[in-house]
Design goal:
Structural class: mainly alpha
Order of helices and strands: HHH
Number of helices: 3
Low-confidence stretches: none
Strand content: under 5%
Distance between the termini: 192 Å
């Protein structure tokens, strides 16, 4: 014959008045007596007494997963910060390069204008030099003519002097 289980033993517990009201309302919510509600709670959680005030293995696993996810998030936040800093550095470098490029372009245009002025001055100097060269050639030619005249006059004087002496 099968051993029948009869629930004919009483176990009691002391609770505060507010706790009894709360437990009674929960029992009413599930449409069971307070005794049946308490029996089900005790029977469902009797093997979990070791975990009261602690995390169950499932909760510990979830907590570990949460810790790992937080660690990943922190790592990703650092990577985002590093990326933001890197982008800012790149943008600053780009702006600096653009400013240097603008400065070089300005200097190039300025130098181009100076070179154009110098080219104009050089053309003027060349024209002046050509005019002076022509004048110089004329003066050399006149000087040569004068030297020849003086030489001719000197020879004539010497010859005249020899002729008079004889």
């Amino acid at each position: 014959m099968e051993k029948e289980k009869y629930r004919n033993m009483t176990i009691s517990l002391k609770v505060a008045a507010e706790e009894k009201i709360m437990l009674k309302r929960l029992a009413e919510k599930y449409k069971v007596s307070l005794s049946e509600f308490m029996y089900n709670l005790v029977m469902c959680f009797k093997n979990q007494y070791d975990y009261i005030g602690m995390l169950s293995p499932k909760e510990e696993k979830l907590a570990e997963n949460l810790r790992l996810e937080k660690k990943k998030n922190a790592k990703l936040e650092v990577q985002i910060e590093n990326a933001d800093v890197r982008v800012e550095m790149e943008m600053n470098h780009r702006i600096q390069v653009q400013n240097e490029n603008h400065e070089l372009t300005y200097q190039l245009k300025e130098q181009k204008a100076i070179n154009a002025e110098q080219a104009e001055e050089l053309k003027r100097q060349i024209e002046i030099n050509q005019a002076l060269e022509k004048e110089n050639k004329k003066l050399r030619k006149l000087s040569l003519d004068n030297k020849l005249k003086l030489f001719g006059t000197g020879i004539f004087g010497v010859l005249t002097g020899f002729a008079l002496k004889r």
